[in-house]
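User: Predict the complex.
Assistant: Input components as received:
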Amino acid sequence: QVQLVESGGGVVQPGRSLRLSCAASGFIFKNYAMYWVRQAPGKGLEWVSVIWYDGSDEYYGDAVKGRFAISRDNSKNILYLQMDSLRGDDTAIYYCGRSRTATSTVIEYWGQGTLVTVSS
Amino acid sequence: DIQMTQSPSSLSASVGDRVTITCRASQDISNYLAWFQQKPGKAPKSLIYAVSKLQNGVPSKFSGSGSGTYFTLTINSLQAEDLGTYYCQQYSTYPYTFGQGTKLEIK
């Protein structure tokens, strides 16, 4: 079955960097677009980023554009989110997600999330 | 960016009730509308895509309708396990955006 397992979260100081990973299994990773979505404590869902199945294109939410970078390693079945210049309002649970099909851009599967806390 | 506005922000209903949540887009998103359910302390779950198509394994008590800028999610025969927060999301135009959520409580 489809499994998405995020890791790399933790406590980080403002201005520092952190890289999240999402290990995928149970499907052909290279055939699907992948996403990051976050949720600040007690708040709603916020779309962060998407990367095409082959890594050829990527898009970002306004709040993270220019500071975060999504990437993937299709040989290792891993999705990444490089987060630079972190701020307090980046504190959130970060979820990775998989698209429904190779040509669809809607999320079907979600991971369990990893918590990032930005604090001095 | 496209703004997604849900109403109500919260509602309380009884077991067996039918509830409807609405979602409005700030511009035409055609049928690129999805719904997600999030139970307390859990990751979101995908319910519906393309306005009305159920994701695999989602029971038919959930249904969606609408087009353009106005959409609804209906839950029939409400059960206690349906409590949680429901989100709509447009995937017509980047950046994709979510509604603010509708918290469903069971009386």
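Chain A has a mean pLDDT of 96.
Let me know if you want any component modeled separately.
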